[in-house]
Amino acid sequence: MSGQREPIRDVAHLAHVELLTPKPEESLVFFRDLLGMDEVSRDGQSVFLRAWGDQQLYSLKLTESAQPGLGHAALRAYSAEALDRRAADLTNGGFGTGWSEGDYGHGRTFHFRGPDGHPMEIFYEAERYAAPSHLKPALKNQPQKTAAHGASVTALDHINLFSSNVDSESAFLQERLGFRLSEVAVTDEGKQTTAWLHVTNKSYDLAVSLDKTGAKGRFHHLAYKVDSPEMILRAADIFIDNGIFIEAAPAKHVAGQTLFVYVYEPGGNRIEVCAGGFLILSPDWETIVWTQEERKRGLAWTNPLPATFHTYGTPDIK
Amino acid sequence: MSGQREPIRDVAHLAHVELLTPKPEESLVFFRDLLGMDEVSRDGQSVFLRAWGDQQLYSLKLTESAQPGLGHAALRAYSAEALDRRAADLTNGGFGTGWSEGDYGHGRTFHFRGPDGHPMEIFYEAERYAAPSHLKPALKNQPQKTAAHGASVTALDHINLFSSNVDSESAFLQERLGFRLSEVAVTDEGKQTTAWLHVTNKSYDLAVSLDKTGAKGRFHHLAYKVDSPEMILRAADIFIDNGIFIEAAPAKHVAGQTLFVYVYEPGGNRIEVCAGGFLILSPDWETIVWTQEERKRGLAWTNPLPATFHTYGTPDIK
Amino acid sequence: MSGQREPIRDVAHLAHVELLTPKPEESLVFFRDLLGMDEVSRDGQSVFLRAWGDQQLYSLKLTESAQPGLGHAALRAYSAEALDRRAADLTNGGFGTGWSEGDYGHGRTFHFRGPDGHPMEIFYEAERYAAPSHLKPALKNQPQKTAAHGASVTALDHINLFSSNVDSESAFLQERLGFRLSEVAVTDEGKQTTAWLHVTNKSYDLAVSLDKTGAKGRFHHLAYKVDSPEMILRAADIFIDNGIFIEAAPAKHVAGQTLFVYVYEPGGNRIEVCAGGFLILSPDWETIVWTQEERKRGLAWTNPLPATFHTYGTPDIK
Amino acid sequence: MSGQREPIRDVAHLAHVELLTPKPEESLVFFRDLLGMDEVSRDGQSVFLRAWGDQQLYSLKLTESAQPGLGHAALRAYSAEALDRRAADLTNGGFGTGWSEGDYGHGRTFHFRGPDGHPMEIFYEAERYAAPSHLKPALKNQPQKTAAHGASVTALDHINLFSSNVDSESAFLQERLGFRLSEVAVTDEGKQTTAWLHVTNKSYDLAVSLDKTGAKGRFHHLAYKVDSPEMILRAADIFIDNGIFIEAAPAKHVAGQTLFVYVYEPGGNRIEVCAGGFLILSPDWETIVWTQEERKRGLAWTNPLPATFHTYGTPDIK
């Protein structure tokens, strides 16, 4: 963080993610009834959804498509000036794919692709959410009523990009967008296999995992957070009662120390419900480097992640 | 427990409660959408409801009436023989009001009234709940899917009878029904002001509180349990978001050490959502006696219960 | 429960367990500092320990021995008469090994061995725990201060006996001691592989698991409960920080639906920390029978138990 | 946030607080044994303590003094340049009281006083904590072992300054230090009565409350966070068992929606244990303004805070 150059601090947070699904109705039921999100709008083949605590208008755009996967990931800039600075820098780096007028709920938007081709965008101007009367909360510092259905996810937490080259992705995110590398797993040769990066005080807002199949630009997972470890366990109960495939039962990650449960939503995309973890407040946080040897312990409580975690992504390439 | 006489062990548990409400539609919304219960049947002005973990067919019969209050409280006997023994004993004591063929979901039933006139009944034969297909749980040792809406109450926990004479009520319940007195609050003169009694290993299944207005036979509250202290806090969040009056915010009782939140359902009846507390396993548990002096500390964490807790009951007599 | 014969209801609860350990000092540190128990007495090579919520004087007798394993498991009878009835019945069945004057904290005791040879005992007269001044709790309905160290286990929950013949063990416990079979796992041939049995309203107080090695009379595990699912996760954090081997990371059982974490204490005995689960209140609970096919789903959230769960017991026979 | 001027983003977080206590031994027992903190160093009449998750070397300097109160509050700058910018700006505003070489664990430090005279300081260079071997955690992204004693507080969360003039204090913190006003309570005349301000994504790092006694420069409270709502309840259990005065039992704040329990440590200072609350990620968060009318609802669950919350501070002026 401290160095010759002032750090880039232009990205405020992960704003929303567009997910593609070949089973739009069933995916909608998953996000709305099982995660407990609310529909805010529809447009063509897309439904816009929000979690009760999302500070943005929506955090998920669910779009019908032949294959599951990532439509795009959107970042919010700190200011109009910050947006312009990032657009210029991304253009200079050859990552930009141009400006648009924006989409539902946000203004002019700069589009770009990371090294592996993941479609991303950044904008600043955004419409605020105003809860309809039946969702007005008791406390006005909360965007809407606490969801009292399904897993009651609070808010979008992070996204994980499956990449053929984590080193490139990680460098790109740090250099062009100001992400800081909180933790990283490396091979004995020093090649990154998972990179956890943050722009907020959360220990990560975006992660990049090595796609062991060698495929490029796939989507690994999207995570919604809940308010306590116990709600992860409850989410898992809801998933089994409703026939959702659990890829990884509730446990605790080493990196970030978040509690999790991983499932595949009916469209095939991997979804995480997460909780806990720590905030990074120190301005001179030193990246935690996990060696292959250290990773052999498994998850925090020493149980393993399933092998599919390193090979399954969307679109599925089998 | 150990004495000359073998203890009476004929009552298995509190089976269900009939609540009267002048606002049947709003009360139904409260129990179904805010507590998260399911409707199992209707009959005339009554709706039968169950919590997802109730082992009986239903735990609540909600009946339209001019005034709120207790319709009746039903106990389940351990066996047909136990039922007959209790009926004979209640009849001998002059408490019996006769047999009936039963009601929805249960067979022949003996009706009686306690010293203050609270209507009660006891039966053994009961119809088992069979979840409809959309509520079939993943695990068959659970009656139905975990409720994923509202406060997700698990099961009926206990009932509290408001009484003009706690000593009489407490003696009646012990002598005629085999309840054991786990804890009791007494005045300096030794008069009981609250009695907590149990037939299961829970520290209480039924409580009796002194009605300081002197009225007879009123209803104090009904309690549904949730699976963790945290779910009490969440229930309170749901109540404020939906305009439910909270009489006593989440805190911890001294007796039983249960966590609670008390509200008035729209029909006016006081409802508790509770969690935690201890089991009584010792066969020679000695009744815990709380003096007036000791009760001055307030609740477990030293905050007070509101004054209405000792005067408000249903029907309301103001 | 309902049948021609009145059920036996003479056993109140599991009173304590004697564990043998070849590493007495390290085992003591485990129970005292990591589980958060307190030492109440010492006698020769034994240390007596209690959890803060145990209603009995102690729940664990930890005894130095060449091999780890079960010293004995002790049950408490409901009354002196109940004790005599059980002693007579056990003697008739050929299981009795005689009376003794008792041990630290309890009076005359009848000793017996189950079909596989596990040493057990039953008594009624027991000394009550009186907390020393530094452990006096704020609320006198609690035996001592809430443990504020280690995993803060509340109380002894259950024991699991490893057996070469679960059918025999299960029949013995039901017929001679009045345990009821809440759930059972069976092979396609109808042979029991795990039996869960209860005498309290807890869904099990004692379990018997098939020892796939064919060894007789070994010990499977002892379980202490904590007050919430979250405290299981916290226990696992404490275990990894202190070098305790986690055999099965926190997850949820199908039978009883308890949350758990399994570890090996330094002496080699398997210890569970558990939470949650349901109470059985229905007098006509029908035993839940799990087929081999149904058991293939794994644990509640579909993750597996490690294979050692079916082969490792103490003493270790490798 | 969005305006003509680029916002000041020079303060990284609240680094530590020096508390004065007339009962140093009892205060030390409170923080070490009841909150679960660890001593890292001593110097003269001061003891330096840290919570297990504090990223800084220590978060509390406990210093013997005739009267309780605030020794000083320390902020950490983002960089050496940021420190110099703030020092210059504070000097320009007439708030500076000069540079020092620093104190235990941190380098050169700029000292200043807010409008009401509260002693504060800011520094950048800081020594990192290295856990001694008996406190080495299993996971190296955690500073030390999870505390398994007392309330197990995770980290310093925020400080609340009692002020005779909240408007001045709030303006000072925003203009000179770059705090942003997340929420504010105002009188009908528009005078601020409580201001909640943040520099991190937490909804507040520092609050200012109106001292209704009119006294200047007193200390309101210091807050340590725990990892879940449930741990607040557990902290309260520990406090009652150990004779600590609970001023406000566990409940939920409206502002920030944090769960809390407030106690007076033996030296007289008000201490909060808090959990939960939301993060502010939106770069254009609009300050939530609470009117007197809105504040009449009480806390989130409608129960009141005790009157002493608005008059008791340290040093006590009675």
User: The biggest beta sheet of chain A, please?
Assistant: 9 strands, mixed
* Radius of gyration of chain A from CA coordinates: 19 Å
Question: What is the CATH T-level topology of chain A?
Answer: 2,3-Dihydroxybiphenyl 1,2-Dioxygenase, domain 1
Architecture per CATH nomenclature, i.e. the level-2 architecture of chain A: Roll
- DSSP helix count of chain A? 5
CATH homology group of chain A: 2,3-Dihydroxybiphenyl 1,2-Dioxygenase, domain 1
Largest interface: chains, residues each: B-C, 47 and 47 residues
Distance between the termini of chain A: 42 Å
Count of the separate structural domains of chain A: 1
Query: For the residues shown, what is the average pLDDT of chain A?
Result: 96
InterPro entries (chains A, B, C, D): Fosfomycin_Res_Enzymes, Glyas_Bleomycin-R_OHBP_Dase, Glyas_Fos-R_dOase_dom, VOC_core
Keywords (chains A, B, C, D): Dioxygenase, Oxidoreductase
Protein name (chains A, B, C, D): Catechol 2,3-dioxygenase
GO molecular function (chains A, B, C, D): dioxygenase activity
What this model shows, in words?
Four copies of one chain form a homotetramer. Chain A has 318 residues and is of the alpha/beta class. Chain A has one domain: 2,3-Dihydroxybiphenyl 1,2-Dioxygenase, domain 1. Helix content of chain A is 17%, strand content 35%. Chain A contains five helices and 17 strands. Chain A has helices at residues 24-34, 80-92, 166-177, 229-241, 292-295; strands at 11-21, 38-43, 46-50, 60-64, 69-77, 96-100, 109-113, 119-123, 155-163, 180-186, 192-198, 206-210, 219-225, 245-252, 258-264, 270-276, 288-290. Chain A has a nine-stranded mixed sheet. An eight-stranded mixed sheet of chain A has the order 2-3-4-1-5-8-7-6, covered by helices on one side. Chains in contact: A-B, A-C, A-D, B-C, B-D, C-D. At the B-C interface, loops of B face loops of C.
